[in-house]
Amino acid sequence: MQLSKIWILTCFLLSYLSILAQESTSQLEGWVRNESGQAIQGATIKANNQTVISDKNGLFILTNLTGKQVVIEISAIGKHKIKQTVFLKPASSQTINFTIEEDNQLLDVVDILGLSKVDEVNKQAYNITAIDAKKLHNTSTDIGQALNRVSGVKIKESGGLGSQMTLSLNGFTGNQVKLFMDGLPLDNEGSSFQLNNIPINYVSRIEVYKGVVPVWLGGDALGGAINLVKSTNPGNYLDVSYSYGSFNTHRATLNAGYIGKNGFTVELNGYQNYSDNNYWVDVDVVPDDNTGLYVNQRLRRFHDAYKNKMLNFNIGMTGKSWTDQFLLGVNVGDNRADIQTGNRMADVYGARFKKGNILQPTVQYKKDNFIVSGLDASFRANFDFGEEAVVDTVFKRFNWYGEGILKGNPGDVGGENQRELYYYKNNKGNAALNLKYTINDRNHLFFNNTYKTADRKGINRLDPENELNNQPKITQNNISSLAYYNNAIKNLDNSLFVKYYYQHVKGSEQINNTYHLLTETQNLLGYGIASSYYLQPTMQLKFSYEKTYRLPELNELFGDVINLEPNPTLRPESSNNFNIGVNYLFTLKEKNAFNVNGGIIYRAAKDYIRYVLSNEDFQGKIRQTPQNQRDVNNLGADIDIRYSYNKRIFIGGNLTYQNLTNQTKYETSKTDISAFYKDRIPNMPYLFGSAEISYVMKDLFAKNTDFNIGYSLLYVHSFYLKWPSAGNSEKEVIPTQLSHDVNVNYSFNNGRYNLGLDIRNITDALLYDNYMLQKPSRNFNLKFRYVLNNIK
């Protein structure tokens, strides 16, 4: 009923607006230039009912203008904002030139730091950090490694390329942090598409929203969101790369696009990865099952190969009267990953593996001034027909020498973990509708509706009659959001929003060897505000608050078929999120530029979902189970400082502190205080950071060349694996870790040809994640990239 009311209200509003728009319209064409008459590309032009960007010639066009006059507001990085009233002639087309002056103070910072479109994104009222991925396109970095250098972000991996990973953002982790690609949830891409196997060239920008998430992204993030902006250019282009590295690692990417004069559009994005992942590890080896003697040795991983392919193809029209862009597409891909370990290094496998594929049709539609002037609309949807599989058919126990010992008697059947040849489809679909209505240049309305569905169907082909195969595993989520934006007060931006969450889950629970049907429906309401205030043109203060919910995901409710046990009784998480931040840019003695970003966060979460290690099963294996922790609080802070000298030397670093604590005072009764009350949440880093320095030389050896050499450091302070109050002095501790990386890049012919060398973990340190699962030892990667823009 609530959804019906929302849609009726929306339809009524659109009908009313269409009546208001039935008057003659005008068109305004203009050029934005500086005081020297040079064109300004990328300037933002706002009129009463729309926003456009100037092209490389400084040209912009405003259409469907109504009334006798219009207020034009123009802004650009490093320039003074201008506002000018233009008088319109009814049903006419006019041309006008605009001159925008330099803001010397801001220009110095912009010029020296090399700020770009990314910094326009960072100016939003939300607590956001944006990464210019284009600056990393000549490196062998993947998206996960790039994110690991953002304040508040920690990537945890179980191994090398393609391994299972989780992302932590200001203490919230895994599914609590939502992933998006161009604004559409990345919930149904399968194992072929995850952050640590996507090459950095696949995207042009990475946006990290900490805490409050803007309405236009939709979804049910609890602690923040990551939005990946895919690499596309407005014209015709080709961008290909190939890298080869240690452990027989091969990575290739392709990005290409074409837009014809008639608007015909083709986009092609793809990548391919392969690695043996046979890096060195320090492990306790059991050479003989009879003696059980452990010997610590340095050995290579022997069953950890990974390969995957991914291709995205879109075809459609751009710049037509009925659409700004309409694309039909398909994502296809596959992957295969050996499973070397379980949740501990002691759980070693030698034959078990997983594989999967993706077949995902997509549709995209975008139109400004949709139906009525001032109403911008976009719609994106996809559905995945792909299939995943876990194969465990070898009845042996392996040690770290790669020796397989028969677990039973000859003729016995079984598997390394549990005998299975399990094939399943998650049948996931996503659809997102965004509407923006510009009331005037100071007031805007935003509406988003995101729908997600999943229906897992699978069968263990070695045990087809098992009743478990027939149990329902279905989730349906719908999140509707409405926001109002206002900047009527000088230097102050405000955004108020509400969100409605709906989830229906259908599953089963096993009691006394009998399955019982479980259904659960949730109807929840969230709300919040995001504000920013400019104390001066280069200093911005930010505040945001949100009452938010996060609905349990398919894998949490029904397991991931590999190492995660199901828990169909999980409750939705909720949290009150507070964020305070500051962004300050300034220069000293002309050539020294600084950019300081800092923030304080507070989270008060209910029914926080965390993964708990189970006890050893009859085979000595340990799995994880998601559980609700009733009350969890987090008070933390992070700071990021960037310095540049004369566009040649760049130094930066960040540090994050987060105190995620258990505030559940009574676990089983109202009289017995929990032994872990006010304990820090285990297996969660609480102090970490990164630093980097780079030096750029232009025209080295030849004209139109760039040479860049850089060094980076990652730091993670030691933390407990289990509850601090549990056990004795022999508590399990994940030790302090330092990782050192070096990269060298050389670009020539104005960036058409590029060579890059990356050396990671140069000290060959032991690096741990996820219950001390060791990450790759020292490794080298060499990359070649070719770029061709504005193809005729």
Written overview of the protein:
With 792 residues, the protein is mainly beta. The strands form nine sheets. The chain has a 22-stranded antiparallel barrel.
Any chance you could write out the topology, listing elements then pairs?
Blueprint: H1 2-20, E1 26-33, E2 44-46, E3 51-53, E4 59-65, E5 69-75, E6 82-87, E7 93-99, H2 104-113, H3 117-122, E8 128-132, H4 143-147, E9 153-157, E10 165-169, E11 172-173, E12 177-181, E13 184-185, E14 203-210, E15 224-230, E16 237-245, E17 249-259, E18 264-275, E19 280-285, E20 295-300, E21 306-320, E22 323-338, E23 353-367, E24 375-383, E25 388-392, E26 396-398, E27 404-406, E28 420-425, E29 429-440, E30 443-455, E31 457-460, E32 474-486, E33 492-511, E34 514-536, E35 539-550, H5 554-558, E36 573-588, E37 592-613, E38 624-645, E39 649-662, E40 687-698, E41 706-716, E42 719-720, E43 733-734, E44 737-748, E45 753-760, E46 768-769, E47 773-774, E48 779-789
Parallel strand pairs: 1-7, 12-15
Antiparallel strand pairs: 1-4, 2-3, 2-5, 5-6, 8-14, 9-10, 10-11, 12-13, 14-15, 16-17, 16-48, 17-18, 18-21, 19-20, 21-22, 22-23, 23-24, 23-25, 24-29, 25-28, 26-27, 28-31, 29-30, 30-32, 32-33, 33-34, 34-35, 35-36, 36-37, 37-38, 38-39, 39-40, 40-41, 41-44, 42-43, 44-45, 45-48, 46-47
Keywords:
792 residues; 22-stranded antiparallel beta barrel; 5-stranded mixed β-sheet; 5 helices; globular
Uncertain stretches of 5 or more adjacent residues: 6-23
Beginning-to-end CA distance, first to last residue: 54 Å
| Share of helix, binned | under 10%
Work out the number of β strands: 48
What general form does the structure show? globular
Structural class designation: mainly beta
Largest sheet: 22 strands, antiparallel, barrel
How large is the radius of gyration?
A: 27 Å
Counted by DSSP, the helix tally is 5
Proportion of residues in extended strands:
over 45%
Mean pLDDT: 83
